[in-house]
């Protein structure tokens, strides 16, 4: 298993300072189930290349239970000694630990400087779609050359010869590889425990929160352990710099506005919800997944609503909502009606009980389908508001958006988008399970063929409805 990293920054031999490995020496390190050798095949002023050769002992792999057991010969025939996997990531972490941390006492300014870098990994397992490597590395500033390795007579190869080129700080480059190599492999050779969340967040501190594939990265890095993935994503949401309003408004106005005269769908959605809340007589309202506070602003502007609670998992979103609502300049009378609360919607929170109505405006489609039952238990089963309003995109209407590519969701963070029938099935099951009646209403102009752009379900608890 071979990894090489090359720079043309001059003098290129400064790479030795950054890695704390002298270009004139070969160094050997004992790692789990093998030995790592660090050497420099080229060390000249104009170009310097460092190599890490990881030799794994196949017998030791079997002894430690790290062989491939997916098929009967897995204990004897497997790819682990030859491909870049979590074993290489661990070796990088041990051998280049100081460089991963971005520290270089001899040349601190160089450690903070983006350098021209080239990475070569001759055999990388890539379990997933053909463009997975590009989806993971290109948003981080890498130019990706991933060439499939042919396997004559064995069908499509899951391995690529990977070359990455970019101008990045050395610590950034190493941390990208430390996280993303196990993600590409979708396997780890050791037990994933709670401390893996800290490793992921530490290595991804400067880039993971803003990565478009952050959830896929988190799931695969944490071996799909739901509790750990949820913890990581919650922490990432708190650190995220992107506008949380983007998570509530599924489409930009440029996509959803079909004519200049038409009201943006986000505004139509808010106005519909506000009118419906007054229609059912709700005065105490909780906005679940409030984001930047778009609905909260409308609720506070109407004195009919006497108590307003905004809830979001992201502390960053709540801070932006506070700023956007000018909470520090509100009158005491208005501010007394508003509370902002950080809470995850998939966990029971006693502070959400006692409201006339709860609103989930463009929220459910951001939840992984396996977590929807937990959300239903927390909202309908535990909080038990008298009424619940849920809006979500109608995927059938997507064909009416000329700028939305066929088969694409309206927002990259959407986990799914439902047809009208799928939404009705989900809502009716929830209503029956938790003692609610449900009715459906359109939001936005209703197309005779594909229905409205947004669909709304109004749940009312049966004893209240009677």
Automatic annotation (TrEMBL):
Its cofactor is Mg(2+). Its EC number is 2.1.1.386. It holds the Pfam family Hen1_L. InterPro entries: 3'-RNA_MeTfrase_Hen1_bac, Hen1, Hen1_N, Hen1_N_sf, Methyltransf_12, SAM-dependent_MTases_sf. Residues 286-378 form the Methyltransferase type domain. It is an enzyme of class 2 (transferase). It catalyses: small RNA 3'-end nucleotide + S-adenosyl-L-methionine = small RNA 3'-end 2'-O-methylnucleotide + S-adenosyl-L-homocysteine + H(+). GO terms for molecular function: metal ion binding; RNA binding; small RNA 2'-O-methyltransferase activity. One of its GO terms (biological process) is regulatory ncRNA-mediated gene silencing. The keyword RNA-binding applies. Residues 1-237 form the Hen1 N-terminal domain. Keywords: Magnesium, Metal-binding, Methyltransferase, RNA-binding, RNA-mediated gene silencing, S-adenosyl-L-methionine, Transferase. It comes from the Bacteria. Belongs to the methyltransferase superfamily. HEN1 family. This is Small RNA 2'-O-methyltransferase.
């Amino acid at each position: 298993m071979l990894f090489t990293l090359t720079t043309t920054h001059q003098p290129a031999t400064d790479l030795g300072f950054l890695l704390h490995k002298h270009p004139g020496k070969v160094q050997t390190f004992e790692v789990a189930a093998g030995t790592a050798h660090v050497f420099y095949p080229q060390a000249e002023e104009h170009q310097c290349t460092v190599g890490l050769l990881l030799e794994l002992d196949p017998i030791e792999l079997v002894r430690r239970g790290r062989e491939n057991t997916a098929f009967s010969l897995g204990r004897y025939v497997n790819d682990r000694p030859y491909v870049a996997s979590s074993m290489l990531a661990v070796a990088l972490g041990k051998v280049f630990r100081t460089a991963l941390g971005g520290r270089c006492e001899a040349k601190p300014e160089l450690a903070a400087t983006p350098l021209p870098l080239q990475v070569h990994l001759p055999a990388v397992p890539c379990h997933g779609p053909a463009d997975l490597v590009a989806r993971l590395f290109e948003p981080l500033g890498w130019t990706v050359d991933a060439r499939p390795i042919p396997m004559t007579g064995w069908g499509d190869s899951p391995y690529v010869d990977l070359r990455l080129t970019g101008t990045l700080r050395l610590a950034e480059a190493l941390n990208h590889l430390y996280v993303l190599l196990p993600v590409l492999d979708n396997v780890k050779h050791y037990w994933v425990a709670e401390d893996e969340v800290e490793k992921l967040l530490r290595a991804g501190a400067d880039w993971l929160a803003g990565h478009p594939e952050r959830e896929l990265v988190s799931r695969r890095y944490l071996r799909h352990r739901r509790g750990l993935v949820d913890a990581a994503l919650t922490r990432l949401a708190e650190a995220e710099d992107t506008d949380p309003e983007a998570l509530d408004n599924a489409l930009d106005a440029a996509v959803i506005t079909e004519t200049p005269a038409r009201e943006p769908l986000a505004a139509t959605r808010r106005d519909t919800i506000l009118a419906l809340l007054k229609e059912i007589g709700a005065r105490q309202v909780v906005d679940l997944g409030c984001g930047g506070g778009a609905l909260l602003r409308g609720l506070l502007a109407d004195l009919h609503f006497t108590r307003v609670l905004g809830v979001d998992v992201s502390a960053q979103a709540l801070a932006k909502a506070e700023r956007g609502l000018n909470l520090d300049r509100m009158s005491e009378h208005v501010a007394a009606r508003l509370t902002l609360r950080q809470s995850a919607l998939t966990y029971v929170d006693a502070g959400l009980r006692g409201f006339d109505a709860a609103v989930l405006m463009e929220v459910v489609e951001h939840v992984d389908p396996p977590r929807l039952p937990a959300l239903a238990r927390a909202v309908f089963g535990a909080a038990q508001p008298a009424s619940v309003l849920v809006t979500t995109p109608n995927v059938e209407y997507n064909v009416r958006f000329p700028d939305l590519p066929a088969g694409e969701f309206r927002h990259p963070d959407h986990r799914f988008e439902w047809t009208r029938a799928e939404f009705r099935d989900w809502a009716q099951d929830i209503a029956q399970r938790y003692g609610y009646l449900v009715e459906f209403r359109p939001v936005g102009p209703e197309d005779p063929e594909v229905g409205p752009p947004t669909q709304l379900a109004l749940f009312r608890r049966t004893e209240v409805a009677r």
